[in-house]
Amino acid sequence: MNFVNKLSAAWRTNNSLLCVGLDPDLAKLPPALRHADGIATFCKAIVDATADAACAFKPQIAYFAALGAEKQLEEVCAYIRSRYPHIPLVLDAKRGDIGATATQYAREAYDRYGADAVTVNPYMGFDSVEPYLEWADRGVIVLCRTSNAGGSDLQFLDVGGKPLYQHVASLVAHKWNRSGQCALVVGATFPAELRAVREIVGDMPLLVPGIGAQGGDVQATVEAGRTADATGMMINSSRAILYAAPAAGEDFAAAARRAALATRDDINRYR
Ligand SMILES: O=C(O)c1cc(=O)[nH]c(=O)n1[C@@H]1O[C@H](COP(=O)(O)O)[C@@H](O)[C@H]1O
What EC number(s) is this enzyme filed under (predicted)? Predict the structure, then answer.
């Protein structure tokens, strides 16, 4: 089953558009887990606590690589694949490099970590994205209109009468999406731009980070980005779920579960 089919099935099976982001920040973990193996234990507990509320899991590679914890990231990815094979695994790596190097990054994401999809940066152009497209059953999630304020520095530049992010959206939807495996990143912090991207790309899946800790409005996000069948998005929340427990010593997994269920329900209210 390819990435988009797997994602569509997860939307339906779990009745959820929530993507649970796995960004294990050592300083915010329970003290006993503040080491490389601890972040794997933490992430696996979060995965178990939220798997029935999620349409995707998105580990952020930097939180592991910064600690030299790639083995632990492999362990977390293998755990998701074996325990929850119906939930898409999105590796957030935001890669972008020349084709020969991109070929290695694609192997890292899809082969080493077994990811169903990976985030990539389109700035170096088609030949830097092409090696990922050769993995026809895997997803390629291209940065389009990112959630951060600084995203406007380049993504809003006028290119022939339209902003660059809209050019990226049409390029990916109409030229790069050869076997239907592409998706785009559009921040929940910019609902008007999310609506504009949805109009350009039809039913293409969108990864939408920015609710929760970044303050994006759930109702505006859902109304702007949903497809006609009320799906179409992986709406990501990381810190607001991972660190929902108010104090060290509280059951972080139970708190994460409550936060994930509440976020899923909040999203579903506006679908
Ligand atoms: O590609 C991403 O996932 C991403 C794109 C973007 O535009 N903004 C953004 O915040 N992200 C990621 O989404 C997650 C957001 O985390 P929270 O703000 O804690 O929910 C982080 O892992 C970011 O790296």
Answer: 4.1.1.23
